[in-house]
Design goal:
The protein is α/β, with parallel strands linked by helices and about 425 residues long. It has helices spanning about 20-30, 50-60, 95-100, 110-115, 135-140, 175-185, 200-210, 245-255, 270-280, 315-325, 345-350, 380-390, 405-410, 410-415; strands at about 5, 15, 40-45, 65, 80-85, 90-95, 115-120, 145-150, 155, 165-170, 190-195, 215, 225, 235-240, 260-265, 285, 290-295, 305, 330-335, 355-360, 360-365, 375, 395-400, 420-425. Bound molecules: uridine-diphosphate-N-acetylglucosamine (UD1). Uridine-diphosphate-N-acetylglucosamine binds next to helix 1, helix 5 and helix 6.
């Protein structure tokens, strides 16, 4: 099995291209199920999660056409994929695919809205918590769907079609907001979604749906109003840059005392990540092509807690903890979104980090240096936090279970090596 070998201590210097946002691309691909026309997505990242969604859509009967696009233009790089759902044959999302990726549940809203029925496997538990889809289901029920759970599958029926409703989510949920947004575009009447997620990826989906002919107001706010339409049209759409990939490389630059320009990154969609990194003593400036991240002074400790956007992203929590391991004092980092998202902590401790978990808060006492070790993690962001720690550690680290990284980071070794990191993928024992 592939591993990543990193010898730490090199200050990163250079440029890194930021790809299209995985978490935008996944719902945008699912949105192709809403109509007979085609969705052409550019700036699509090359990641295993994207392949998983592509496999699921092909299983339903979507035709895919993939063209690589190699010319670099910020915001319009990456792959181009055309998805056409004119001949849907199968309305079941099977367990074998859904268990690999929870975002598979995003096919439920569009299939139900267009065909009046859908069957989707329950995603089951995952490494970062129970992550149920009860709020997706309750919202669709409010729109008139009949939902039954049978043998691990959700069976949803809405014979006369979905009907507009007023839905207030008890907590902010990205996936349920996206599922509902897609379902409501084809419902009869008006749907109002209160306490909607405002994540840039939700707005990206809403903007694309609008371009397809959907009637949506309130994009980028906590209240989305969707007036159902009969049909949607083909669209060409460029996925926004990945703010978590950008934040991750910013953290990597920061921990090594480096100077890196993140090409294509957009500061205005990075929410609190930039503020938090600045509080840590990292210099961040906008450039003509992205953002520049530099650290020359001390790494300062912070107090941060994860929140829905525009608050500090839970998907940046592990990377921030890695960074704070070598800060000049004690940081307190609180996780409010997922209940079991500190699996990186024991691994960082094996590198010498001084971290204590107090409820949902990690108390991180900065130390002089981390030491290389053999490491593994159980999810995407936890894995990349180990990469960040290893880049600054003394000695060599081996990071196992690389498949987690391949879900969300395209050409990770190549991008870091381009800035001087000593990093390679190996399958040697
Ligand atoms: C999305 C992102 C993920 C990110 C997360 C929070 C994608 C593909 N993934 O995940 O990277 O970490 O947002 O920003 O976009 N919840 C329920 N019931 C539900 C739905 C959610 O209780 O029906 C809970 C979850 O367990 C969690 C919280 O709500 O505690 C937020 O989850 P949600 O925003 O839905 O996360 P995802 O859409 O799964």
């Amino acid at each position: 099995m592939d591993k990543i070998k990193i010898t730490g201590g090199v200050r990163l210097k250079g440029k890194i291209e930021i790809g299209g946002a995985k978490n935008s691309a996944l719902p945008l691909m699912a949105a192709s199920l809403l109509m007979e026309g085609s969705v052409t997505l550019s700036n699509l990242p090359h990641l295993s999660d994207i392949s998983t969604m592509a496999n699921l859509l092909v299983h339903h009967g979507v035709r895919l056409n993939i063209n690589a696009c190699s010319d670099y233009k910020p915001g319009h790089d990456g792959r181009v994929m055309t998805l056409s759902a004119a001949d849907i044959k199968d309305l079941t999302a099977p367990y074998e695919i859904v268990r690999k990726m929870r975002a598979s549940a995003l096919v439920l809203g569009p299939l139900l809205a267009r065909f009046g029925t859908a069957r989707v496997s329950l995603p089951g538990g995952c490494a970062i918590g129970t992550r149920p889809i009860d709020l997706h289901l309750a919202a669709l029920e409010k729109m008139g769907a009949e939902i039954t759970l049978n043998e691990g599958y959700v069976q949803a029926n809405a014979k006369g079609g979905l009907k507009g409703a007023v839905i207030e989510f008890p907590k902010v949920t990205v996936g349920a907001t996206e599922n509902l947004l897609m379902a409501a575009t084809l419902a009869k009447g008006t749907t109002v979604v209160k306490n909607a997620a405002m994540e840039p990826e939700v707005s990206d989906l809403a903007n694309c749906l609008k371009r397809m002919g959907a009637k949506i107001e309130g994009i980028g706010t906590r209240v989305l109003t969707i007036e159902g339409v009969k049909n949607l049209n083909s669209v060409n759409y460029a996925v926004i840059p990945d703010r978590i990939e950008a934040g991750t490389y910013a953290t990597a630059a920061a921990i090594t005392g480096g100077d890196v320009e993140l090409l294509g990154a957009k500061a205005e969609i990075m929410g609190a990540t930039i503020d938090v990194l600045r509080q840590c003593g990292v210099e961040i400036t906008e450039t003509a092509h992205g953002i520049r991240v530099k650290r020359t002074g001390d790494l300062l400790p912070v107090e941060a807690e994860t929140e829905a956007y525009p608050g500090f992203a839970t998907d940046m929590q592990a990377q921030l903890i890695a960074l704070m391991c070598v800060a000049t004092g004690t940081s307190r980092i609180t996780e409010n979104i997922f209940e079991n998202r500190f699996m990186h902590v024991p691994e960082l401790t094996r590198m010498g980090a001084d971290i204590r978990i107090d409820g949902n808060t990690a108390v991180v006492k900065g130390i002089d240096h981390l030491s290389g070790a053999s490491l593994m993690a159980t999810d995407l962001r936890a894995s990349v936090s180990l990469v960040i720690a290893a880049l600054a550690a003394r000695g060599t680290s081996i990071i196992n279970r690389v498949y987690h990284l391949d879900r969300g980071y395209e050409r990770l070794e190549e991008k870091l090596r381009g800035c001087g990191a000593i990093i390679e993928r190996t399958n040697k024992e």
